[in-house]
Amino acid sequence: MAIALEATSSTFTPAGTTSISVNITITAATDMVVAYVANAAAAQPASVTFNGSAMTTSIQGGGNYRIGLYHLLDAALPGAGTYAIEAQFAVAPTEAAIGAVALSGAKQAAPELTDSTFRNTPSSGTPLFVTMTALTAGAWAVNAAIIGGSTAT
After folding, report:
1. CA nearest neighbour of 151 among 7, 5, 20
2. DSSP conformational letter for 108
3. What is the pLDDT of residues 97-119, one digit of tens each?
4. φ, ψ for residue 88 (rounded to 5)?
5. Which helix (H) or strand (E) holds 87?
6. What is the phi/psi pair of residue 95, to 5°?
7. In Å, how far from its chain's centre is CA 136?
């Protein structure tokens, strides 16, 4: 079965708050949800949850700007519907973003390839990039980046 994109959702808040959330709609076919949380703080979120259940950390990195990817596999997902993904911070960051993708046909295992290298590109106009080689044919890559004063993508 090929991997398919079921849904996406994201939001950004420039105000200092100790939580941020976004809703995502999943279908009966959804078998993996991947979320990113990006923030301007020196620490990762204290927790990232999907419908109140803890998401598994895939990767985290960063310096003054932090970013992390989190996932939840089919066995932990509820039935079709719209659910909240929420990140809680111990200290309110000056800005934060959260987003998610819902996938179907995804392998039911932890991500096989991760890269936690934090690339700090000065405002020279040089694009951000990551070079990755998939370990499995047909694999998808989910990546996230944050730029100070902007939203994550």
Report:
1. 20
2. S
3. 899 999 998 888 877 766 655 55
4. -110, 135
5. strand 81-88
6. -160, 150
7. 21
The answer to whether the beta carbons of residues 34 and 101 sit under 8 Å apart is yes
Residues in the chain: 153
**3-state class (DSSP) for residue 62:** strand
CB-based contact 47:88 (threshold 8 Å): yes
Q: What is the pLDDT of residues 22-44, one digit of tens each?
A: 999 999 999 989 888 888 776 78
The C-alpha R_g of the chain, in whole angstroms, comes to 15
Tokens 């990546």 belong to residue: 143
What token pair was written down for 31?
Answer: 């078998």
The pTM of this model reads: 0.82
Q: Where are the beta strands (DSSP E) in the chain?
A: 4-13, 19-26, 32-40, 47-50, 53-54, 56-62, 65-73, 81-88, 96-104
Place of tokens 């949800």: 33
CA dist 22 and 103 (Å) reads: 17
Amino acid at 101: V
Contact 42, 29 (CB under 8 A): no
CA distances from 143 to 37, 39, 53, 81, 85 (A): 11, 15, 23, 25, 18
